[in-house]
Amino acid sequence: MRTYLTKTLDQRATIWLPKAMLFAVLIAAMAIMAVPSAEADDRPVTFADLVEDLSPAVVNISTVQTVRGRGRGNRSVPQIPEGMPFEEFWDQFRDRFEREQEEPRQARSLGSGFVIDKSGIVITNNHVVEGADEITVSFPNRDDYTATVIGRDALSDIAVLQIEHENGDDFPAVKWGNDEVSRIGDWVMAIGNPFGQNGTVTAGIISARNRNLGNTNDVDFIQTDASINRGNSGGPLFNMRGEVIGVNTAIVSPSGGNVGIGFSIPSNHAKNIVAQLQEHGKVRRGWLGVGIQPLTEEIAETLGLDIKDGAMVTRIEPDSPADLAELQEGDIIVTWDGKEVINSNTLSNLVKRTPIDKAVNVVIVRGGERQTLSVRTGALSDEQSGIVPDDEGDDERERPRDRSGRELVEGMELATLNDSFRQRYELDTDVEGVAVVRVSRRSAAYRAGIRAGAVIVRVNQRKVESAGEVVDLFNEAIDAGRDRALVLINLRGNTVHVPLRLTTDNDDN
Fold first, then answer.
1. What is the pLDDT of residue 219?
2. Whole-structure pTM over 0.70, yes or no?
3. What DSSP designation does 78 have?
4. Distance from CA of residue 234 to its chain's centroid?
5. Looking at the DSSP assignment, which residues form a beta bridge with residue 488?
6. What is the C-alpha separation between 188 and 248, in angstroms, rounded?
7. Which of 292, 363, 375, 298 is nearest to 329 (CA)?
8. Residues 147 and 136: beta-carbon distance below 8 Å
């Protein structure tokens, strides 16, 4: 009997012991999951604690601007012939109309801002305070203060204000964060005054980074789906540690209201602008002295390159930092000061943010080979601009020779550049190359943006001085099995590389 009971207990232990161990493991796992982790802090159950701590430093900014006249231009009420009925009443109406047209009026606007230093330093957007005669900063506790502009920068859309106060009060302030450690998908929170509704809190995530809004500034924006509306401009975008990682600036919306696409100036960029405005009252930006365009797939293919990113040099300003560093037209800049250059906009922003007179290592691709040059940045005085025509189409190629030195090729009539051509198209004396006299509207050259008055400076990165040289280089490209030639043109003072489609023997006529 004892033997039977012992055997039975052993069997039951064999059956239930693994189940008990599994149950214990599950209980332990549930206990571990119940313990808050560092990652859980990034997915808050509520934003209430952050809002309570941060809201006192977020302010409403109202401005008053005096506008001359009533915006009716130079219109005036005409006079009527003497002796007409109601002449006296008409004269009174005309006089009143013209007085009202000349009377100044006050325009008011609202925006947001935040205190970044307890002494009363406020950050907002330039467009919130631009042209303002009076600026009032209002805190959530209903305290109002007059503020003055320390400095503002239109290109980055940042303005720094100083609250005027005599009693030496310390103001509630928030801290800058490092936007570069934030990732797409991280939670963010915006506080501001949309449509004048003070202290409005919205939350969302970082939707994207490095957004550019039409080359009108030098900012690579943070995109967020946290609701941002009119009046949020200049307000802070917070991470979950309560740090400012962005200055809310713009929205994209067909209706003018929030559709979940808002943009903020990254905090690291804003901090740099703010520091310069506080120190100099203006922003000093780096300058290279080049005209640039993006490296496209067509251009890379034409040059036989296996790279996809970079900025292509189209023009070198005389005596500029680029000229002194011996950069050349046709060079492709792929790295600036250790940072990858994705396109021409990336390079432009990197150069502008580089301290003046700093020696920078620049990696370029020249003739298919990588080289490293040292460039010392200058100070930007005028914004650089250029044209980037599209390359489309495919058309017939004409190659009859003209004994006068002109050539007909790819729908273009080419000629030696002379004084008459320079005068007609107002070309600078330093522009050298081959003149484009006419362009057929049916040609690939026309569709690529080449027009009469353009000057072909280089073909496949080789200088040309005669129409015959252009034809020879086109033929050389075709013989090498290429269907495009890279043409550097100067048009109306701008230089740009055009990957021109060539007509080969296999093309349909």
1. 86
2. no
3. P
4. 17
5. 458, 497
6. 12
7. 292
8. yes
For the annotated catalytic residues, the residue numbers are 127, 157, 233
Q: Which residue did the predictor score with more confidence, 338 or 406?
A: 338
What pLDDT score was predicted for residue 336? 94
The residue whose two tokens read 């691709």 is 365
Q: Does residue 469 sit in helix, strand or coil?
A: helix
Instruction: Compute CA distances 292 → 12, 194, 385, whole Å.
Output: 81, 39, 8
Which residue has tokens 């941060």?
Answer: 54
Q: What pLDDT is attached to residue 335?
A: 94
Helix, coil or strand: residue 420: helix
Contact call for residues 247 and 112 (beta carbons, < 8 A)? no
Backbone φ/ψ region at 226: left (φ over 0), alpha (ψ -120 to 50), beta: beta
Q: What is d(CA 211, CA 207) in angstroms, rounded to the nearest whole number?
A: 10
Full set of structural domains in the chain with CATH = 57-73+85-163 (2.40.10.10), 175-279 (2.40.10.10), 286-379 (2.30.42.10), 407-501 (2.30.42.10)
User: Can you give the C-alpha Rg of the chain in angstroms?
Assistant: 33
| 8 A C-beta contact, residue 410 and residue 444 | yes
Beta-carbon neighbour count of residue 187 at 10 Å? 18
Structure token digits, residue 499: 């990957």
H/E stretch holding 455 reads strand 455-459
Of residues 153, 283, 267, the one with CA closest to residue 220? 267
Which of the residue ranges 7-21, 67-81, 425-439 has the most confident prediction, judged by mean pLDDT? Answer: 425-439
Within 10 angstroms of residue 210's Cβ, the number of other Cβ atoms is 14
| Long-range contacts of residues 17-20, Cβ cutoff 8 Å, at least 24 apart | none
Q: How confident is the model at residue 83 (pLDDT cuts 50, 70, 90)?
A: low
Helices (H) and strands (E) in the chain, counts: 11, 28
Reply yes or no on whether the pLDDT at 28 is more than 90: no
Model pLDDT for residues 39-61, shown as the tens digit of each residue: 434 567 889 999 999 999 999 99
- 245 Cβ contact list (under 8 Å, min separation 6): 177, 178, 179, 182, 188, 222, 237, 238, 239, 264, 266, 267
118 DSSP assignment: T
